[in-house]
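User: Can you fold this complex?
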Amino acid sequence: MGKPSVRVNANGVELDVKVRGAGEPVLLVHGFPLTGAMWLPAMEHLPTGFTYIVPDLRGHGESTATDSWTMADLADDLAAVLDELEERRRVVLVGLSMGGYVAMEFCRRYEACVRALALVDTRAEADTPAAAEVRFSTAAKVLAEGTAVVANAMAEKLFAPSTPAPLRDYWKHVMLETSSAGMAGSLRAMAGRVDSFPTLRRLRIPVLIVVGAQDVITPPDCAQAMHEAVPQSQLHVMPNVGHMAPVEAPREFAAILGSFLSSLPVKTK
Ligand code: MLT
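Assistant: Here's the predicted assembly.
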């Protein structure tokens, strides 16, 4: 995972972005509280002919944080990354969980820039007021007590039961290493996100939806609801996989995403 990155200064933050390959841009957006490195095992198996752009979101991995942010800020950061890389052409957007929330916000703000969308282990609905309240109090606890508050709880839920211990331990370590400010900032941003079903219903682009059959954070019902909201979408339920499809089953995930990418109409521009 120690491969070279570029640094992008945008919107008051410095973002770490990995870029691999050459061709049509594909932007891969990680989940909470993780890093862009979660895409790398699957990327080894994705087709050539694409530029894969993998940022660490604001407050995560090697990217810096600000005092607070919203989903709109995270979407604007992605737009700035594309501008900086001169890739603000129509992009294929791939988001896992929180990355899916950011991807849907990006579609709201920059619809004309999105060529296709892949939503992985995510959901379209906003938090209920009660769920948002829990996020705000968890954010306060993280700032007071540290990242173990979230890392310990999430490590139990991210993976299917059959996932080997070293893989679980590695990603727990990544979560523990996230800064408290980054974790708290993204918890608050997720609490404030809006319902994305109206956005999904409006989309006229190809949409891929992938979920692990054993995902307990954004279960298959969430994927089914998004599939029903987007008539032209395709839904894949991956057996024996939890909330981290590209990490748990990188080859199988890459086969699904790769065939979606290869099926996209050839661009005229
Ligand atoms: C994620 O995996 O990105 C988060 O768990 C999503 C969430 O908490 O809603």
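Strands lie at 6-10, 13-21, 24-29, 50-55, 91-96, 114-120, 207-212, 233-238. The chain has a mean pLDDT of 95.
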